[in-house]
Amino acid sequence: MSLKQMQGQYQAQAPLTSAHIAQTMTLLFMTSAELLQTIDVELGKNPALEAINEHRCPSCGRRLPEFGPCPVCSQSKTMDPDETIVFISPRDDFYSYNGNGSSYSNDLPDDPYSAANLDLPSYVLRQVAPELDVDEREIAAMILTNLDEDGFLSIEISDICRFHHVSLEKVEAVLKKIKRCDPIGVASRNIREALLAQVEHLSESTPVPEFVRRAIADHFDLLSKHQYSDVAKLLDTTVQKVKLVSHYISENLNPFPARASWGTFREPNDNTPEVYQHPDVLIYYLNNKPGNPLVIEIITPSRGTLRINPLFKKALKAQPGENQEEWKKDLDKASLLIKCIQQRNNTIRQLMEKIVSVQKSFIIHGDTEMQPLTRAEIAIELGVHESTISRAVANKTVQLPNRKIIPLSTFFDRSLSVRAVLREIVENESHAMNDTELLNSLQKKGIQVARRTVAKYRAMEGILPAHLRRVQKFATA
DNA sequence: CTATGGCACGGATT
DNA sequence: AATCCGTGCCATAG
């Protein structure tokens, strides 16, 4: 790309230097976690830069975006549900949990790579953080730092109340939010509670057999001792059914939530590794109510809003001393950095707006609704070079309303919807279909691919070939 | 003989 | 320019 072309992309900004362009490019490429470190370095050694930290929304406690009113509270009354809200949020608290004290700190991990591989408390914290009110954060931190190796809460709730001088209800409310996080049921006080949380979670998406809930809630100790006949009597049902319940529990629920991914072993067959990355963008329903407009929150990790230190400016004017040259250099560097960060934010904001307008139904309804989309299309629409989009997309992650964290590049995966349909077909098949039959089924749904491609997608989804499915799925039939 | 997976090619994408 | 992805051909396992 020529310099002229590049400058064309940034015509919105005042006079440009090649340094500016180079830096914006670099910044675009960075994850918000990496950006934080860059800014920290700049802030640390550059007296001309200052972060102000004063704007908080009076009603919801969120840091306000760089410009305008709080998009969460002030607009919530009159929002058109089809509209989406995009804003850039300096949410530094995402990055400042120190992982072993009961408070937030500004310490960063020494090794930047260790941040990607989180321990259980941090992993959970980062999931609940978007839902926590300001006064709930300390409570959440205390809960999460007192988990034992199985993920159970190892202190009494009353102790938390006393420590933070809050009501029992308040703590329970936080606890409830935490239990919904992955691993589901984490921070329960015992196995029974963990199982109940999982049943709760499962029943939101799939039907749960009758009696399961009640059996766990009311007769768990009998059930765990395999005294099925007693349980059956109490539930007024047959022993046969209680056995089914017991089977369902052992098949679908995990009594020690934390052991699935932490602790001694890891899932051997997960192709999406368990390592958690900070999301760079959050997408959620306004006030977390499905049906509300979507809110796109772009995380900017700077503490507060960056600006040129006014004291520094003043001092420079007042004292044309011998340091002036050096100070001026610092000042220029600082304002350059600020401009570049704004540029970065601007590009990402536009990008996300476009992506969400195209992929809205994927975000809401899931994999099958994924629309084909290329970086080039977006680049043309936004009038920027495609490599700009490439950089902005690379290495970034998005948290969807269902709390799944996916790479931003997923929005450009053409084959995802086809693979989702394929999965559906195989799940509902009445006999083990071979690849050619699967191909026909896909074509009936209007999807054109080659037979060889069906095989590849099948492998990608971890679906066994037909002759092996036959023995696994239809063993008795 | 059929179903599937390996390899490599070419076009699209980054 | 480098990489990714869908596809065709062919070997081979069942």
Basic shape: flat
Radius of gyration: 26 Å
Give the neighbour order of strands across the main sheet.
Answer: 2-4-3-6-7
Compute the separation of the termini in Å: 62 Å
Q: Considering DSSP H and I runs of 4 or more, what fraction of the residues is helical?
A: 40-55%
Give the class from helix and strand content and strand pairing: alpha/beta
Question: What number is the mean pLDDT?
Answer: 74
Q: Could you state the order of secondary-structure elements as H and E?
A: HHHEEHHHHHHHHEEEHHHHEEHHHH
Largest sheet composition: 5 strands, mixed
Number of helices: 19
What is the count of structural domains?
Answer: 3
Oligomer: single chain
* β-strand amount: 5-15%
Model regions low in confidence, pLDDT < 50 over at least 5 residues: 1-15, 94-117, 260-277
Q: Tell how many strands the DSSP assignment holds.
A: 7
How does this model look, in words?
The chain is of the alpha/beta class and about 475 residues long. It has three domains: about 5-75 and about 275-410, no CATH class; about 90-180, Arc Repressor Mutant, subunit A (Orthogonal Bundle); about 415-475, Arc Repressor Mutant, subunit A, CATH 1.10.10. It contains 19 helices and seven strands. It has helices at about 5-10, 20-30, 30-45, 120-130, 135-145, 155-165, 170-180, 190-205, 210-225, 230-235, 240-250, 310-320, 325-365, 375-380, 385-395, 415-430, 435-445, 450-460, 465-475, and strands at about 50, 85-90, 280-285, 295-300, 305-310, 395-400, 405. Strand 3 (about 280-285) and strand 4 form a beta hairpin. Helix 2 (about 20-30) packs parallel to helix 13 (about 325-365) and helix 6 (about 155-165) packs across helix 7 (about 170-180). The longest helix is centred in the last third of the chain and has 42 residues, at about 325-365. Residues about 1-15, about 95-115 and about 260-275 have low confidence and may be disordered. It binds a DNA duplex (14 and 14 nucleotides) through helix 15 and helix 18.
